[in-house]
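Quick one, T. Sequence first:
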Amino acid sequence: MTTTQTTNEKNLIQKRALEMSRTHGCVDIVKLAKSFGIRVFGDRLSLNENAFIEHKDNEFKITVNEIHTPQRQYFSIGHELGHFILHKNKIKELGRLDRGGNHTLSKKEEEAADELGAQLLMPQKSIEEYAKKQNLTKETEITQQIVENLADIFDVSKFAVIMRLRKLNYYVPYISFD
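Structure tokens:
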């Protein structure tokens, strides 16, 4: 896959995610995966295993740990979609990508999949629209309540919201959630 093809697929998946976000508030990450022909399954994986993506019989499949919280599952699916867009050839070559055994990518590749997963679940334009409605700027101190509101809107964890806002250069001080 060429860089241009990867960029085009990345733009297409981000556009679909943004459309879902604007229509429904949160991105239906399973529906987004299905729109790319990827089937998603739940299974009882080991506690420290989140998900994996595999290519078998000319088909892509994501398996997510069904014992994790729904928000953890959604982020894991988003992460695996990130691999699908960014590392499709490696998935085909190895047959499977996961964070253990012989199917592991570099830390940089895993971070890129995390970043794309966050972008899919919490599109930048949707965050900016929320910020505008709330009169928030990048210099405004993000409060616990704002984080909780965004976590509810996007159906993700508070930690994922904090990391995404910081990546977008919003001012998020230390926030403790008991």
